[in-house]
Design a protein that fits this description.
With about 400 residues, this protein is α/β, with parallel strands linked by helices. The protein folds into two domains: about 10-165, no CATH class; about 180-395, Zn-dependent exopeptidases (Aminopeptidase), CATH 3.40.630. It has 13 helices and 14 strands. The strands form four sheets. It has a six-stranded mixed beta sheet with strand order 8-5-11-14-12-13, sandwiched between helices. A hairpin with a 2-residue loop joins strand 6 and strand 7 (about 200-205). Helix 10 packs across helix 13 (about 380-395). The radius of gyration is 22 Å and the shape is globular.
Length: about 400
């Protein structure tokens, strides 16, 4: 069954009416009677996912009632950037090379123009709307990277950092002094387990990577230093169901991932151990998490489960806290569903050959149609990352 998060009044579907207001950098709207956050995102043709909701909250911090609702008559910034179109094309306007990304931005503008949400064609008005969700960044990043001439004329914005993995400004410093080493399973020449759905291949390494990078983003937002041991310079967080297998992943030090299984495992643990040794005095806590998707017989459904290092009480406590957090979330989101994950020790290479507290996480069975919904839905992948983050916070409290 699909993982669901209850946001209460914040994301209830209300009737709404919004008027676009002038804003220097962002598209903005004035909340009218009956306005709701999801209604606003939907009106402006934005995804109603947790990323956009959290971004909307950060853009408008302090402008909500005690229940998280909108305040009547208040102007709210939307996660849509207004950029001066250079009259040539979108790629040169934004200084990007990705044709598909430029086409998505163009399609979005045509969509809101045809819906009469945006007045006039961007080619005529020279005002281009760029949703942050297409760029995977938010307002603080965009504002810090905007370039202008001394005459204040609009210049191309430097978007070369857009593929930076898990780029995100800080929300708070609750994890300051903490280092997290995140490993997404397989990658490079090894796709891991492969499932099938509606004629599409579901490659373990792509879905494990997407959840891992979402977790990295969450940890960084709260002040942690994050080391993504496996990285793909072409893929950031993706909001599609079927993730194309690229096999472009490399290691954090730039090395190619070796084809032999034991060689790959040794590569990763050696990198982690080197960092841990170098960072021993730098951080008060260092933690390792490795994320995989299991593969078993098709009919067997599997809830998220955890392995810890044998004989390590602290690692066992960490994994038990993660387990209990996931169990609590399922009980709230899907009452009566039941959660059958577990925590056990296992003599795995990563756990055996590292020393810091560690969790080896299996997200479910990639062969099972019901479990597949846990991976293919972007909101579900984000929920898993959020829940793991909350478990980490509980552990360290």
């Amino acid at each position: 069954m699909k993982i669901r998060i209850i946001f209460g009044l914040l994301i209830a579907y209300f009737a709404f009416g919004f008027c676009v207001a002038d804003a220097a950098d962002n598209v903005s709207a004035v909340a009218q009677k009956g306005s709701g956050v999801l209604g606003l995102l939907g009106k402006y043709k934005l995804s109603k996912n947790m990323n956009n909701i959290e971004l909307f909250q950060r853009l408008n911090s302090g402008s909500f009632d005690k229940n998280g609702g909108l305040l009547l008559g208040t102007s709210y910034q939307l996660p849509i950037r207004k950029v001066v179109f250079n009259g040539n094309n979108i790629r040169t306007t934004l200084n990007i090379k990705d044709y598909d990304l430029a086409k998505q931005i163009e399609d979005y503008n045509v969509l809101v123009e045809n819906a009469k949400i945006k007045k006039g064609s961007f080619k005529q008005t020279k005002e281009l709307w760029v949703p942050y969700e297409l760029l995977m960044v938010d307002s603080a990043v965009l504002k810090n990277n905007e370039k202008r001439t001394e005459s204040k004329k609009e210049q191309a914005i430097d978007y070369s950092y857009l593929k930076e993995q898990a780029s995100s400004p800080k929300v708070d410093n609750v994890l300051s002094g903490f280092a997290f080493y995140l490993i997404s399973g397989h990658g490079g020449p090894d796709p891991g387990a492969v499932g099938k759905r509606d004629g599409n291949d579901l490659n373990e390494h792509e879905y494990a990577y997407d959840v891992t990078i979402r977790l990295a983003k969450k940890l960084k937002e709260h002040g942690a230093d994050v080391y993504m041991i496996v990285q793909d310079e072409k893929d950031g967080i993706r909001e599609t169901q079927y993730l194309k297998a690229g096999g472009n992943e490399k290691l954090i030090n730039g090395d190619a991932i070796l084809p032999g299984q034991l060689d790959r495992l040794k590569q990763r643990t050696d990198i982690v151990n080197d960092y841990v040794a170098k960072n021993k005095k730098k951080y008060k806590e260092q933690l390792l998490l490795e994320i995989h998707v299991d593969s078993r017989i098709t009919k067997q459904r599997i809830d998220i489960f955890f392995y810890h290092r044998a004989g390590s009480k602290s690692s066992e406590r960490l994994n038990n806290t993660l387990f209990k957090t996931i169990e609590e979330k399922y009980n709230k989101a899907q009452p009566g569903r039941g959660y059958k994950g577990n925590v056990t020790s296992r003599d795995l290479w990563t756990l055996r050959n590292t020393t810091i507290d560690a969790s080896f996480i299996e997200l479910g069975n990639i062969q099972n149609p019901a479990d597949q919904l846990r991976f293919i839905q972007p909101d579900n992948r984000q929920a898993i990352a959020n829940w793991l983050y909350e478990g980490i916070i509980k552990h360290y409290k």
